[in-house]
Design goal:
alpha+beta; six-stranded mixed sheet; 18 helices
């Protein structure tokens, strides 16, 4: 016979919320192995000690925020509704079955007012990394870095065109010193100092989210994006650094400064790094050599003029500081320009009757010119690292470390799109997403090992 279950649901029962949450639930593991007590000390300067109404417990507030990022709940209103009906969420926050859930506006107000222009989200991320280090889950010896695009909350058709200053290179002083030293060693006069001219370029600026950048990359979608520059540690794939820039900032620009931050903040003794081809620039190769770090960077394919010799077909003689062409003629040193490139040129008298002339140059004066950066030796060392056995093994780890980290963030934590607008808000999203990814790894690993 048919029976209705509704009458049974109207009965009163004495239950404990502790018994309703499974023993192997992820939130139980996170509560057991992650220490959240540091949050009180971090936010204490942001609260008034002797005035105002009693505030919502900061630990509960941040646990609510972390729940939203952990389970990919994009809306704070939806987060409030989910906590009301989910027993595991209530248990994690320390709420009983009948306790009132803090209003969603509490999260919004604190994020927009109390936590605005503070480092609280960076501090929380750093603290979780330090806890991972204390559990010996971070080695700090081998780091892998890459970036991924994050679609801005902006229409790509709504923009204005503006003239903006180009990014200032933080290595210019060091490069200028290297150029002057190289010219002096070759007996060239010092370059005349020139007035600093601020280079400008025209860019598209979104009218909806001006902090985002218009990204145009081969094989990537076109529009307004942010870039999440992320670093993971090879040992357990824990995320050790997160940095957000507009989508039109090159990957290589913030790399060395973020690498130094990790070494200083966490005391890492970095021995090797693996990077994508977007980081293959001479300043980065020189920076890695100066820091005595074994760098493995993917090869970047260049497309030289069809029908002409490739540059690698010319042999560089370091002792005599000349290039030797395939016809065994020398290209001698001429000068070093402001950008750090040495110029080597052939003798037109030899080239004009050379049978390989048409494969060498198409210049009217029959002169072949090659350039070589003053830091080119550092770049060649990185190329040799990539071709070594250890380099090949290290680079193969990218797909199962940094690529997987990005995939998990986008598939499981709603990291494909920006929840909010503005660089600081997107940075909060990136930091909190990385924090919950680290928390999950710590909890699951320690849960399996005990």
């Amino acid at each position: 016979m048919l029976r209705s279950n509704r009458d049974k649901q109207q009965q009163y029962e004495f239950v404990s919320i502790e018994d309703l949450v499974p023993k192997d639930h992820l939130l139980r593991l996170m509560d057991r192995y992650i220490d959240f007590s540091f949050i009180d000390e971090k936010v204490k300067p942001l609260y008034c000690e002797d005035n105002g109404r009693p505030a919502v417990d900061p630990v509960m507030l941040f646990k609510m925020i972390l729940l939203g990022y952990c389970y990919g709940i994009r809306s704070e209103r939806q987060l409030e509704r989910e906590i009301q009906t989910n027993v595991a969420y209530r248990w994690f926050l320390g709420l009983g079955l009948t306790d009132r859930v803090p209003d969603h506006s509490t999260i919004s107000w604190n994020r927009r007012k109390r936590f605005k222009d503070t480092t609280i989200f960076q501090d929380i991320f750093d603290e979780i990394v330090l806890q991972a280090i204390s559990h010996r889950m971070v080695g700090g010896r081998v780091l892998i870095t890459d970036s991924t695009h994050l679609k801005a909350n902006a229409n790509k058709h709504k923009y204005t065109k503006e003239q903006v200053q180009q990014n200032t290179k933080d290595y210019l002083d060091e490069l200028n010193a290297a150029v002057e030293a190289d010219r002096s060693a070759e007996g060239k006069k010092p370059l005349k100092p020139r007035e600093e001219v601020t280079e400008e370029k025209e860019v598209k600026v979104s009218t909806t989210d001006p902090d985002s950048g218009y990204m145009i990359r081969e094989g990537k979608p076109e529009g307004f994006f942010y870039l999440d520059h992320r670093t993971v540690d090879l040992k357990y794939n824990l995320i050790t650094d997160v940095h957000v820039t507009p989508g039109n900032v090159h990957d290589s620009v913030p790399y060395l400064s973020r690498l130094d931050r990790q070494r200083e903040r966490f005391g890492f003794n970095v021995e090797a790094v693996a990077l994508d081809s977007g980081y293959l620039s001479t300043p980065i190769c020189k920076g890695l050599e100066d820091r005595k770090i074994f760098g493995v960077i993917a090869h970047r394919r260049f497309h030289p003029t069809q029908g002409l010799f490739h540059k690698w077909e010319f042999t560089y003689d370091k002792e005599r500081n000349v290039y030797v062409c395939p016809a065994e003629h020398e290209l001698t040193y001429r000068t070093t320009d402001r950008h750090g490139y040495r110029h080597y040129a052939s003798d037109p008298k030899h080239c004009v009757n050379c049978p390989m002339l048409l494969k060498c140059t198409r210049s009217r004066n029959h002169r072949k010119v090659l350039t070589r950066h003053v830091w080119e030796d550092s770049k060649e060392k990185v190329r040799l690292n990539r071709l070594s056995k250890a380099g090949k093994q290290l680079y193969r780890k990218r797909k199962e470390t940094i690529e997987r980290s990005f995939a998990d963030a986008k598939e499981l934590h709603g990291f494909r799109y920006c929840r909010l607008r503005g660089l600081q808000n997107v940075k909060e999203q990136a930091l909190m997403t990385a924090t919950v990814q680290n928390m999950k790894k710590i909890a699951l690993h320690l849960g399996r090992s005990q």
